[in-house]
Amino acid sequence: MPSVVVDGLTKTFKVPVREEGFLNSLKSLVHRTYRNVEAVRDISFTLDPGEVVGFLGPNGAGKTTTLKMLSGLLYPTAGHASVIGFDPSERRPEFLTRVALIMGNRNSLMWDLPVADSLDVRKAIYSIGDADYRARRERFTEMLDVGDLLTKPVRNLSLGERMKVEILAALLPAPPVLFLDEPTLGLDLSMQKRIRRFVAAYAEDEGATILLTSHYMADVTALCERVIVIHRGSKLFDGDLSELSDRFGALKTITVSVTGSLPDLSGYATVTERTADKAVLSLPRGEVAGVASRLLANLDVLDLSIEDPPIEDVIERTFASGDEEPSVTATPE
Amino acid sequence: MRRLLPIYMVEARAAVQRQAQYRGAAFISVLGFLIEPIVYLIVWRTVAEQAGPINGYGVDQFTSYYIVWTLVRVFNLALAPGAWDWWVRTGRIANDLLHPVNPYHRQLASMAGAKVVWITLWIPVAVFLTILFRPDFSPNLLEGSVFLITAWAGYVIRFNVLWLLGLVSFWTTRAQALIEVVIAMELLLSGRLVPMAVMPSWVQTVSGWLPFKWTFQFPIEVLIGQLTTGEIWRGMAMQALWMGLSGLAIVAVWRNAIRKFTAVGT
Fold first, then answer.
1. How far apart are CA A91 and CA B100, in angstroms?
2. Cα–Cα distance for residue pair A137/A201, rounded to 1 Å
3. How many beta-carbon pairs under 8 angstroms link A with B?
4. Are residues A224 and A91 in the same domain?
5. ipTM confidence
6. Residue A185's domain spans which residues?
7. Range of the domain at B222
8. In chain A, which residues have pLDDT < 50?
9. Using DSSP, how many helices (H) and how many strands (E) does chain A show?
10. For residue B92, what pLDDT is reported?
């Protein structure tokens, strides 16, 4: 049975239309007009227990709105969601105890008090037993290497330190479902890596289901085999990360080095980079085998490598496809 | 209730820690709260000195009333009206809505905890006012105990009224105007500006049926010994009624308010 079932979830915000100019401002006193903004349109997917899934999309795509609906913060306009058997919009305490939404760059701890005091408050709010509390606090503290931060007031912590203790606090109740919204936003590379490692270990140890949004593709490639891509509130793709490359990363690259000087290779494919003895070619994936064979046959090749395009390029192409054709059919699981 | 008790305890304790950490700022805040009644005290003492007693309130009565007022004010301080607007408009409330406990309980406990520090800081101010104005009242243990009950009940009623007003922020992020109207009503109908005995009788009748008087004037009168036993029981019944009504209203409005939350700013 899936941990998360999302069926036709839709969120529409009614926003007032503000026209410019003094007369329009006066007019709005007696007659106000509104328009509907569809932040999320008819999204459906399921997440199995223990799955870690990347939830990707450009800014304003509807990712955070979806996560807020799944965590019970926002009430959907249409559709239905079920998270570990609960309807999030009912906001039952049993549900809220077992689901965590962690938003990067957000502070939910008590600003002026030492971290440990905030953790004590969490213990009471989530009714965590003494033994579980001690064990988890000790384990997560070690994994995140935050032992020396617990006695410091939150206001004195750096952004990265604060994110680590935010994660520690959010996971104290050991939620089986975790929504991570840009957890590494604004952090340096080593801090990003540490948080990735922690999330991976938590998912493995607890068998947690995790839906992760991030603009850092390193987060996604390190943690997720499956990704869901949304754009303008609609789902564009749902499947394996590698499948995403196959579908939207239509071009591959061949890097070839030769002994001596390199001849003109424009007859083989588009040359994107070139030095005296090395070139990078970009070509449709269907032509790769043939072009590689011809290069090996015709040139004195020292080295030849075939690579998928960077995942960032693939994602960019995926979003671009959404701009061209907003209703691209999602791949069924 | 068994589940909520540890939350109330830990939130109140954290509030004490927070206030104690900034004791200078807390002391200045308490002084700020007390400027208002001291102004009223000076004005009405002057009026009573020149015009004589007004409906039973002479210099001594006004002095006792406003000095106890300062303590009641510290008791019934609730979430600042503007705080709700900020809380919702900036999306900070989203953090609290993710928890399995209604933020009402955490805020109620937190404000109650802060009062421990504020009341401690109020003591030197009260001593100073007592030396300066020499109020003429000496409550006994029973009056003191009943006062504590009615003062805390007054806090809960006032907290609930302001919380209900704050819930309007879920529909509009510009609820400040409405809040100011209610605060103005409170000023006139609670005994905050002036003892209700000084007001016209129809105003006194209206105020008896509204919640405001039971958060300000009633606890004050209990401590300065102006009420009969019957009046105290009736007042406590009114407090219980308003706690119940406002509590039920919060439950009803909350269910709808939460559906209107747009999580802006998050």
1. 8
2. 15
3. 70
4. yes
5. 0.85
6. 4-245
7. 4-260
8. 325-333
9. 11, 13
10. 80
